[in-house]
Design brief:
Number of strands: 0
Order of helices and strands: HHHHHHHHHHHHHHHHH
Shape: globular
Largest sheet: none
Strand content: under 5%
Amino acid sequence: MPIGFSYLGELVALATTLSWSIGIFPFTEAARRMGPNTVNHIRLVFAVIFLTIICLLFLPISFTELFTVPHLEHWMWFGASGVIGLALGDYFGFTSFVILGPRIGSIFTTLAPAAALVSAFFLIGERINIIGIVGILITIAGVVWLSLNKGSNGRINDHAIGSKGKGILFAILSAVCQGFGLVLANKGFETQIDNTDLPFFQATWIRMIVAMGIMYLITIARGKFREINQPALENRNNGLIFTLGGTIFGPVMGVSLSMLTISLLQNKPSVAQTIFALVPVFVLPLSYLFYKEKITIKSVVAALIAIAGVMVLIWRDKILSFI
């Protein structure tokens, strides 16, 4: 087998990471202009529209079959993945990016592989040895060092939406939700009834439509529908164009590619999440390009330490065999 196809899952995961890294920036701008809750709602509406069109154009499926072909187990696992990873995880993520900025906020995504491994332990029986625990500690050490880095931290401005402490807490919660959500999606791809192998575009569509439905039901029940959607209806500060750009690179391209990655690397959600955790590596140069943010040696070292911990976490079994 050619090497390109041998590592197709890993290559798709890298493409996913690049797409997500680009999408962070328009979403951050949109959230600062219209608020993270508004953006979190509207981008799901945009994503469902785009993905419905993509599924109908590129899959041999009718609109009715979008709902009827997936089995109940598909709806359960992918739906739960969408609610936790998209509705909750991305809300926490958007809020943290508004407060901390894309570069600092993205560093905390390195915690997601640890969340994926812990989740996988309970859902698919993945085990964590002592080397894996060391990897988790190294990752946390890198993240904490960067968050306490005075040179970087001093440039984080408090926003009306919350303090730096809230930004860090929400960034951590976002990473946990992303890791757990990915493992739930892996369970969805394991579900095969009557030899039904769900296309990754349709799996993405299920995640989006369930996340959107649950989110809007909660919003309506709280009586917040008008308040949350008004900034989008007004296109406050031209935030919709940024939301649209973020949707294309995030929920449409990025999430679809992540589902393709999971389908190619089945039962290895921690491997996929580790590659996704390389977002900070992509974001560092992109932050310089978009915001002219200075890249300090300490921030680079902190990011490398966090990523090194992630790699130790994934290669824990091989490392243990050499000891």
